[in-house]
Amino acid sequence: MAGDLDISPSYVALLERNQRPVTADMLLRLARTYRMEITDLASEDGENYAQRLNDILRDPVFDDIDLPSLEVSDLAMSFPGVAEALLRLHGAYTREQQALAEQRDAEPGEQDSDPVREAQRFFAASRNYFHALDAQAEELAGEIDQAGGMEKWLGSKGVRVRFLPPDVLMDAMRRFDRHNQQLLIDDTLDCPSRAFQIATHIAHTALRGAIMQIVRGQDFASKTAATLIRRALAGYGAAAILMPYRKFARAVQARGYDIEALGGQFGMSFEQVAHRLTTLHRPGEERVPFFFIRVDEAGNVSKRLDGAGFPFAAHGGGCPLWNVHQVFRRPGELHTQWLELPDGQRFFSIARTVTAGGGRHGRLRVVRAVALACVAEEAGKLVYAGEADPASAPTTPIGVTCRLCHRAECIARSVPPIGREILSDDHRRAAQPYSFAES
Hints:
Elements: H1 2-5, H2 9-16, H3 24-34, H4 38-41, H5 45-56, H6 69-78, H7 80-105, H8 115-125, H9 131-147, H10 150-156, E1 160-164, E2 174-177, E3 182-186, H11 191-206, H12 208-215, H13 223-242, H14 245-254, H15 259-266, H16 270-277, E4 291-296, E5 301-306, E6 335-340, E7 346-357, E8 365-375, E9 396-397
Parallel strand pairs: 1-3, 6-9
Antiparallel strand pairs: 2-3, 4-5, 4-8, 6-7, 7-8
């Protein structure tokens, strides 16, 4: 090789040991001499490994180790097999931590039998988008629009819509009287809720085939899980009827994801629009991917929709530093926040309170908080981010959940992280509730 390239054998040895850079001139010599393509020689695998290694080495568990970027780059370039092994090991470690955290948070025996968790995993696996159902619902929305609205469309099918007091409906919001072919709706519901209940009935009937096609062939652990998924798919179909994909996606882009403005345009509530924003993944017509969460004042998560594959989709949302838990202090106001996870991932979040129930005197009204989060790089498309630079915006350090967060300095921590030994010190009390070993 030295003779072919007109260089010394010692220089070849230095190149092989990565002790000399491969210059552009050397790349050209190699390509000409051995009739190779430049692109075959200039592989990007090393840069890719270096970037991925840098990402995992930002985990706080490595905070006390000096890891110069040059050394990481050398490892990735010179020993790609070792780099791949480290990446796989960290991936396995992360998955085991998540599984252990979920197991510890669950009641005995709950992990394998909880239908709610199973339904959440089902929707997360599809990124909360079902193309066939969405497309059929959009086509159906066109028919309904031509008929003059949902009530007239149902009338053409022989179904009459009636609005009745809740005591007549025995406190049901919606009931279908099959014998008389009447759809009965609680007359104390607000307009968005009325429309959604009617659309849900249409989804259960006109979109039944598409829903069953999605569910058919799935191996669910229980009938309850299958029931929850069918019900959620009917709600998905209802939202797709009321906010047809192309029309909604165009409006979303034109209005900069302004949820209140979109609610006014489509006659939907803040929460209904927020739901729909998590589903915009049609190939070629994608919009910003969002994660959605809804919590009550006690911190219970009552809904979690993952349209982006976010790390807190499985069991996150419990960090008290995320302002979704603080919006109850100023109900009705929209709050924004830049977030950073322990591994350095950054997100932009909007949160606000929503209400359910009420409608008449004496009926219980429940206040919950909902939040949408997107990756920081996409925040510039949202009116809520303003002119802020995602790279320099001040962020709040949060964790997916305390069990998986290794931030040693967090004073809001409720439990220690998995895999860290708690230090005992009778003579010193730190500000944070736990002090733990670095490894």
